[in-house]
Every structure is written in structure tokens, then in C-alpha cells.
Design brief:
The complex is a heterodimer of chains A (525) and B (377).
Chain A lengths: L1 E7 L8 H14 L7 E7 L8 H4 L6 H6 E6 L1 H4 L12 H10 L7 E4 L4 E5 L6 H7 L4 E3 L2 E4 L1 H7 L5 H14 L21 E4 H6 L13 H13 L3 E2 L4 E6 L19 H6 L21 E4 L5 H12 L24 H9 L11 E4 L3 H13 L6 E4 L12 E4 L1 H4 L5 E5 L19 H19 L14 E5 L6 H8 E3 L8 E6 L5 H11 L3
Parallel strand pairs in A: 1-2, 1-4, 2-3, 6-9, 7-10, 12-13, 12-15, 13-14, 15-16
Antiparallel strand pairs in A: 3-11, 4-8, 5-10, 6-8, 16-18, 17-18
Chain B lengths: L2 H9 L2 H5 L17 H15 L3 H14 L4 H13 L3 H16 L19 H13 L4 H13 L3 H14 L4 H13 L3 H14 L4 H13 L3 H14 L4 H10 L3 H14 L4 H13 L15 H10 L4 H7 L3 H16 L3 H14 L5 H14 L1
The chains are: A alpha/beta (525), B mainly alpha (377).
Chain lengths: 525, 377
């Protein structure tokens, strides 16, 4: 019957976002009753190494919410062409249009709202699907009622939408919450963007939201102006459903700078609108030709993929625990426990697209073996690129591609550099003071050289058309002699030694030292 | 003077009552489709309600709907007042009644400008945009939106004034110009409308709405070839959109082209009996067997036409039920279709009556014109 369209990103937009959003997702799902109903959440421009916002809060969502939720992930790379045109990190019009394009075509209605709204049918037991199924074609709004922060934060249980809706029915009377704020037509009510129900076919006919609105604010009013022209009337559902907004003004959101807030021009986008259509984007609104990843919380979750990868690559431990040490006298010992380290390596991968091509530059054969096994079992479809310059590594593994480093470099979308000892055996104790032998030293030199070269030339060797920098993962680069090397070139956080793994984007150190390092790296000196 | 007459006088300003006004300011409200008396009552009731006198508001709204029973905005307003007073159940009935009334009647043809596809009356919109114009006179949207509401409510003179004002503020607005053409056409000033559409189409040769509108103005003047050329071009630009394409092909009396779109629409929209009616029409005119007996809501006009097609009611009965010129033309067109195979002369006579009595905007009008021009040639 209807597709709810929401957007956001995995950040901290406004006060206590996680609670507001969980309450809202669960409450919206609760008032859905048609099998075609869906919540489309566009996760816009969350950093690649983070999960999407709903994944981050999945444990607070009800099973019903997880079932109806489809997450459409727009990557930073897909936003890169708009980055210079806006101060915002998440774009409403683009997000909502990407969702509209990919919404269930069987649904008659599209409902635009936000992740802090609770919709309460006035007749208990009635669903929003029932309500929308019974009303004639049109463009519908409802007034937004405000919910003081104390009420939703202190009294709502995120996973009890039925109880929350019941509380709202009670509070609305006890605390006089229901005040309708009328507005100029075509807006009808204040804060109209929290409930705009339009026919899906109308939204396609008018080319969705206006994607030239890149500065934030008034996207909802622009839509109201255009749909009011198209439909001739702005109808209300106030007799059917009340909408409550979880107030979040304790902390200003990123797009709210008081009187200094930059916003789309009201005159241009509301009062001088003269047509419902946006002909300039008639063919490409909602990015019809762009492949958008879809993430589900009710199947093939990141956790399921992670454990599938590790279960394929690892056997369970046979001892209660193992040991290592970071004492200084062991600084040159490069042995490490692969079984323990592999989960931290694969953990770096899961938030990336399944089609990612990863380059693995390593010393230990078993590392590549295990990694490729886990990679395939985690459902990645992109190749594992292994340079020919790295000797002693396996060839012919499923999904593996070998070739000259220079040839593979522009194909790689992520890098793993592993600094271990080629001669380390599987059952060998780690960090006992073992020194690198000649073969180890030879292999490590190759890895270090390729690392410097890859990091120094990252910007100019990107795959064709790519604008965003690629991520570097260093394995066994903490508290040993490759720690300084890795962090000279890569902006990594300080991580616990136990994880053995550092990761980050190439540093652009403007100091003389940084320039010298990049010069040496480029020329493999 | 009746109570409502007294209230009507009280609703206007002193200047209105004394008749001293010389010209119509942009932000002045003019009553429309529901009649001056009912709309004045509506306006006064809204004011009383905002001032807190819900009881008086309800009594005025009831008076308004007694005068004009189809006044959906007044019924909805009563629902709002009842809702705020706590009588939710009674309010709900009023809201539903308003929605039912707005759904009544045939929507505009899907191949036309979006304003002309709208249903019901737009009094509340006219009032609301008039209020906006009190503060924001120099912007396109409130002028255009109110003009559209007037046009949809079949008050093209009022619409034209709003479009002219928009064009004064934004002389380059092709959207306003195209609507001005529609208003002129609705006023029967087809030659002036064609001039306006020529300008719009010169700037926007790929505008299906403008091509459609110019085609209608041409057909009204009897320029069949020029009308067909515009609709032929529109049909190409529609890129297979089934509803609009079906209507354009029907205007052209090109039943072969209309057929697949009609089949799609019968599948997609079972609520609208016209799709089944037109599918049957196309099949009959193509000499193919109709796809079975069709039915619709027994009380609807659509059901009458379907019954006429299936021969279960007489021509006299249907023509007696045709309460508007448009409906009469629809029935006469179907009679022409039904008789064409057996008696071409009778069919021609029916179709000629469509042209004599029917509005040129009607799809049957264009189809009849094309049928006649084809049978002559």
C-alpha cells in the first residue's frame, strides 16, 4: 500500500538520535499492515568504514521493523560529485529520490517523513495501510504535534511501539500536546515535511524532489508547492492520524546554525514555483542508472556474513587463551597469531561494497590463504589482487587475481599490507624474541617498498573516475618496527596491540618530512 | 430578507454592500462554483470558528450545505469544528462525506494539462490563496495556484486575470502563458488561445500539454488536420504512458493505436468504468468481438453507458439520464459506434449531434469529428 521514505546517516544529527530513530522506526513499522508496505531508509554518505545507521542500532529495532526496512546505501564516492556544491553531508532531495526510484511499484502511496516521528491512528487497531487504502487519490498532510524531550527520552521503551503509541494517546490529553499550527498555503501546516503522503505515480510524474536544492531546508515546502499545483488541493488526514515529533532542540543539529543557517532560497523554491515539474532532471532524478547497494536487517546481515567468513577460515581454539607481549625488547619480533588476528582484519572489510577489489600485499602464504577463504565466504564478489612481486604466495585461489603491482594498482579499491615473517609456522609461539631470517627480510623489503609506493601514489593511481581516497589496512603494524612506517604514510588511529591491525586513508603531510617520504615512496627508494 | 441573505450582507464589507468598489484588487475574494451565498456563509463560518464560536460556525456551514449540497469544503469545515469540540464520531462522518463528494464526477481527461484533470470544487483553495496574496502579491505561486483553482472550478475569466497578473510579474513564464491559453480556450476564445499556444510551443516544442490544448482549440474551430497533427505529435511525446496515450489516440479515432493502452488501463484501473467503455468502443470500431459483458456501479453514469453498449437499456432511457451536454454527447457518440456497422448514415447523424451539442474538450467530440471527416473522405 505505501512506501515510507526516510534518510539520514550514521552520525549524531541532533540530540540522542539513536533513541529517537529507534522509537520512530518501530512505531512506523507497527502501523503497517499490508504485505507490500516498506520503510526505505537512504543511508547517505556514511563513511565507508562505518555500518549504515540502522545497522548500528539494529538491536533496538523490533522484528517487524527489521522485516519492512530496506536500507539503500549511498557511498561517499557517489556523493563526491556534489561535495563542492554544498556544506551539508546528507542531501534530502537526492536521498528521497533514490528511494522513490527504487520503491515497491505495487505501492500506491509514498509517505515522506523523518526518523523522529510517531504516527498514531486515531482509531485504535486501524493501521496506516488501512487509512491510506481507503482515501481517494490526492496529496495529504497532517499537523505535527511536538513531544517534549523528557517524555520520549525518559518514558519510551525503544522496543515497545505498542506501549509507546498508547502512552502518546494518554499524554496528548493529559499534557495538551495536540496543537495544530496552520500555515500559509500550500504548506497547510507547520513542519509539513514530517508527513507528506503522495501518490507514487504523481511523484514520478513531477520528477520527484528538486535535486538542485543542495543547501538544506524547504525541500518539503517546495514539494508541497509543486504537488499543490499538480493536484489542485492539499488535503488533510487529521481525522485519521496524529503525528508526534520527538523534540530534539537540546543540541542544535548540524544544519541548524540559528540566524546564520544557510538554506535554499525560499522565493525561488516556494513562492516563485510555477510548475510541478522539474524538466532539468526529468530523465535522471533519483539516479536511475547508479547501482545503489541494498542492506537488509532481516537477512544476510553483516554479522551473518562476518561469522560465515571466519567459520570458513578458522578452526575453534583448543586452549582457553593464548598469549603475546608488547615489551620493548620484543620490538623486532614480527611473529603474530594469525587465528587471533584474522577477525580484526575481516572486521575492516564488511562495511565496504561486496564488489570491492582488494589488493593483498603479504609475506605469509597462510595469511593469503585464510584471507581469501574468509573473503569469499563473507559474500564479497570483487577480486583479491595479489602482486607478482610478492614471492611465495599462493596462486589460483578462487577469486584471486595475480599480476604486476603496477597493473593491479589502478584496479584496487582497498589495500591490505601484511608485515609478518614468511617462515613463521602455524604452531610457533609468538613474540618470544625471534629474529627475521634472510628470506623474511627479503620478503618484508618487497612489502615495505610496495606499501610506500601505493601510499605515495594513491591519488594518481585510483581506478578511473574514482574521487575518494582508498583505505589502507596494516596487519601486524603495532609496537614493532613497521609501526612508524605505516603511520608515516597512513592516518591511522592508535589501536590496542591485541588487534594487530591499523587502518586509515593516506596522509597528506604538508611538512618537509612528509614531502620527502612521498618522494621516496614514489621512486621506491 | 432571509436569514442567509442577511448573513450574506453581513459577510461583505461596507464598501461591497454599498457597491462603491471600482476595480478588483488582487487580494479580493470572488465567490465561485458553489455560489456566492453559500461561499459567503462558508467564509463567515470559518472566521467565527477561528474566533471560538464553533456553534455559530456549524449553523452557518449547515446553511451553506443546504444551499449547495455538494459543497465539500463546507462539509469538511464542519467536520473540523465538530472534531475540535470533541464530537469525533460526527466529525469523521463529515470528513468522509467531503471526500466522497470530491471523488464524485468524472476526472478530467488524462491527456490534458494537470489543472484540467482535477476534480471537485476548490473554494477553500481560492480563499486560502487569496489570503496568501494579501501578504505576497508579487510572487508567481499564489497567483498561479489561485488561477488554477478558478480554472478547475470553471471560472476561466477569474483564472485569466490571475494568469495575466502572473505574466506581468514574470513576463517570461511559459507555464503562466500556457495556462492563459487554457483559460482563453475555456472561455471559447479559441483563436486567441491558439496564438498563445503557438508561442508556448515555439519555445517548448516537446510540451505534450500545450500540444493537446492547441489541438482542442483547433478542433473547436474545425481545423481537423491541424488538431490531428498536434495530437499525433503529442502521442509520440507521451512515450507510451497508457492513460494519456489512450485518450489522445481516441481523439484521433485511431482505435488500433488506442487498443493496447486501453487494455493496460482496464487492468490497472478497475474503478474507472470509462476504460472498459472505451475498450469496448475500440473493439467494436475495429470489428473485433467485445471482451464480454461489462458492468459498473449501478447508479453511476458509467453504468448507463456500459448498459447502452451491451444493449440492456434503451437509447431513450440513457439520453433521459444524460443531465449535461457532455453526458449527452458521450451517449450520442456511443450510439454512433453501435449503429455504424449496420447503418452508417444513422451513425453519422449521431456523431454530428455530438459536434452540435458537445463541448470540444470532450474526447468524444474529437473522435466524432475525425469519424465524420474520415467517412466524408
Amino acid at each position: 500500500m505505501f512506501s515510507v521514505i526516510l534518510y539520514g546517516r550514521n552520525d549524531s544529527h541532533g540530540y540522542n538520535l539513536h533513541k529517537r530513530a529507534a522509537i520512530s522506526f518501530n512505531a512506523i513499522a507497527e502501523v503497517m499492515s499490508d504485505p507490500d508496505d516498506e520503510i526505505l531508509f537512504v543511508d547517505y554518505n556514511t563513511p565507508d568504514d562505518h555500518p549504515t545507521f540502522p545497522e548500528a542500532i539494529h538491536d533496538t529495532l523490533t522484528e517487524k521493523a527489521k522485516k519492512v526496512l530496506r536500507i539503500l546505501r549511498i557511498r561517499p564516492e557517489q556523493h563526491a560529485h556534489l561535495k563542492s556544491k554544498t556544506h551539508l553531508v546528507a542531501l534530502e532531495a537526492q536521498s528521497r529520490n533514490v528511494a522513490l526510484r527504487r520503491s515497491n511499484p505495487r505501492n500506491r502511496w509514498v509517505l515522506y517523513t523523518n526518523t523522529d516521528m510517531l504516527l498514531v491512528p486515531r482509531t485504535e487497531g486501524e493501521s496506516l495501510s488501512d487509512i491510506l487504502g481507503a482515501v481517494p487519490d490526492g496529496f495529504y498532510q497532517i499537523p505535527r504535534f511536538e513531544l517534549p524531550e523528557m517524555l520520549w527520552e525518559a518514558a519510551f521503551d525503544r522496543r515497545d511501539p505498542v506501549g509507546n503509541l498508547a502512552k502518546l494517546r494518554d499524554w496528548s490529553v493529559r499534557y495538551h500536546l495536540n496543537q495544530v499550527v496552520h500555515n500559509f498555503m500550500p504548506m497547510k501546516y507547520d513542519a509539513l515535511g514530517d508527513f507528506q503522503a503522495a501518490l507514487r505515480e504523481d511523484m514520478f510524474a513531477i520528477h520527484g524532489f528538486d535535486e538542485s536544492m543542495l543547501l538544506g531546508w524547504h525541500c518539503d515546502s517546495n514539494l508541497a508547492a509543486r504537488l499543490a499545483l499538480y493536484r489542485g488541493r492539499v488535503d488533510t488526514l487529521i481525522d485519521k492520524v496524529f503525528g508526534y515529533h520527538c523534540d530534539h532542540t537540546r543540541v542544535a543539529a548540524a544544519n541548524n546554525k540559528g540566524r546564520q543557517t544557510r538554506m535554499n532560497d525560499q522565493d525561488q523554491y516556494i513562492w516563485n514555483v510555477s510548475t510541478p515539474y522539474v524538466p532539468a532532471q526529468a530523465d535522471d532524478w533519483g539516479w536511475p542508472d547508479v547501482e545503489i547497494e541494498e542492506v537488509r536487517l532481516d537477512r544476510e546481515t553483516s554479522y551473518e556474513r562476518f561469522t560465515a567468513g571466519l567459520d570458513a577460515a578458522l578452526k575453534p581454539a583448543t586452549a582457553p587463551y593464548t598469549a603475546t607481549s608488547l615489551e620493548w625488547h620484543l620490538y623486532d619480533d614480527l611473529t603474530y597469531d594469525l587465528d587471533h588476528t584474522l577477525p580484526f582484519v575481516t572486521d575492516q572489510m564488511l562495511t565496504y561494497p561486496r564488489s570491492t577489489a582488494v589488493m593483498v600485499v603479504a609475506t605469509r602464504r597462510v595469511f593469503v590463504d585464510r584471507f581469501v577463504t574468509a573473503w569469499k565466504a563473507m559474500g564479497f564478489t570483487g577480486p583479491v589482487l595479489v602482486p607478482n612481486e610478492c614471492e611465495g604466495l599462493p596462486s589460483g585461489l578462487p577469486g584471486q587475481e595475480r599480476g604486476a603491482f603496477e597493473e593491479l594498482l589502478p584496479k584496487a579499491e582497498m589495500f591490505i599490507f601484511e608485515f609478518g615473517l614468511a617462515t613463521q609456522h602455524a604452531d610457533e609461539p609468538v613474540r618470544t624474541g625471534r629474529m627475521a631470517g634472510p628470506l623474511d627480510t627479503k620478503r618484508l623489503k618487497v612489502v615495505a617498498k610496495l606499501f610506500r609506493q601505493a601510499a605515495s601514489t594513491e591519488a594518481e593511481t585510483r581506478p578511473s573516475g574514482r574521487r575518494t581516497p582508498r583505505r589502507f589496512v596494516g596487519v601486524n603494524v603495532i609496537y614493532n618496527k613497521f609501526w612508524p612506517l605505516f603511520t608515516d604514510y597512513v592516518g591511522a588511529n592508535i589501536n590496542p596491540f591485541c588487534s594487530q591491525v591499523l587502518a586509515g586513508l593516506p596522509r597528506n603531510d604538508p611538512s618537509l618530512r612528509g614531502k620527502v617520504l612521498r618522494f621516496r615512496g614514489r621512486r621506491a627508494i | 430578507m432571509s436569514n442567509s441573505g442577511m448573513l450574506l450582507r453581513l459577510s461583505g464589507s461596507l464598501r461591497d454592500t454599498l457597491g462603491t468598489r471600482r476595480r478588483q484588487p488582487v487580494d479580493d475574494w470572488i465567490p465561485g462554483l458553489n455560489g456566492g451565498e453559500a461561499e459567503h456563509l462558508f467564509l463567515r463560518a470559518k472566521a467565527l470558528y477561528r474566533m471560538g464560536d464553533g456553534k455559530a460556525a456549524i449553523s452557518l456551514l449547515r446553511l451553506a450545505t443546504e444551499i449547495t449540497p455538494s459543497f465539500s469544503d463546507a462539509i469538511e469545515a464542519e467536520g473540523e469544528v465538530l472534531d475540535m469540540s470533541g464530537d469525533t464520531a460526527a466529525a469523521s462522518v463529515k470528513y468522509e462525506e467531503a471526500r466522497r463528494l470530491r471523488r464524485n464526477g468524472r476526472a478530467g481527461a488524462p491527456d490534458r494539462h494537470f489543472v484540467l484533470r482535477q476534480q471537485g470544487s476548490h473554494t477553500a483553495e481560492i480563499v486560502a490563496y487569496t489570503r496568501v496574496l494579501k501578504s505576497l502579491k508579487k510572487f508567481a505561486l499564489p497567483n498561479l495556484a489561485r488561477g488554477n483553482a478558478y480554472l478547475a472550478d470553471r471560472q476561466p475569466e477569474m483564472a485569466l486575470a490571475d494568469y495575466e497578473r502572473t505574466l506581468k510579474l514574470h513576463p517570461g513564464s511559459l507555464d503562466a502563458l500556457a495556462l492563459k491559453g487554457e483559460a482563453l480556450s475555456a472561455m471559447g476564445n479559441y483563436a486567441a488561445a491558439i496564438e498563445v499556444f503557438d508561442t508556448v510551443i515555439a519555445a517548448r516544442p516537446r510540451s505534450p500539454d500545450a500540444l493537446n490544448a492547441r489541438g482542442i482549440a483547433h478542433i473547436a474551430l474545425g481545423h481537423v488536420d491541424r488538431a490531428d497533427a498536434d495530437w499525433g505529435q503529442q502521442l509520440k511525446l507521451l512515450n507510451g504512458q497508457p492513460a494519456a496515450s489512450a485518450y489522445v489516440a481516441l481523439r484521433l479515432a485511431d482505435y488500433q493505436a488506442a487498443l493496447p493502452h486501453l487494455e493496460t488501463m482496464v487492468r490497472n484501473d478497475s474503478q474507472d468504468p470509462y476504460w472498459r467503455l472505451y475498450l469496448h468502443t475500440a473493439l467494436v470500431r475495429l470489428g473485433r468481438p467485445p471482451s464480454g459483458r461489462e458492468s459498473a456501479d449501478a447508479d453511476s453514469w458509467g453504468a448507463s453507458l456500459l448498459s447502452l453498449q451491451s444493449g440492456t437499456v434503451s437509447q431513450e432511457e440513457v439520453l433521459a439520464r444524460a443531465d449535461t451536454a457532455g453526458r449527452r454527447a458521450e451517449a450520442l457518440f456511443q450510439l454512433g459506434v453501435a449503429t455504424h456497422a449496420g447503418d452508417r448514415s444513422a451513425a453519422r447523424s449521431y456523431w454530428q449531434q455530438v459536434l452540435d451539442d458537445g463541448p470540444p474538450t470532450l474526447v468524444e467530440y474529437a473522435a466524432a469529428r475525425n469519424e465524420l471527416s474520415r467517412s466524408v473522405s
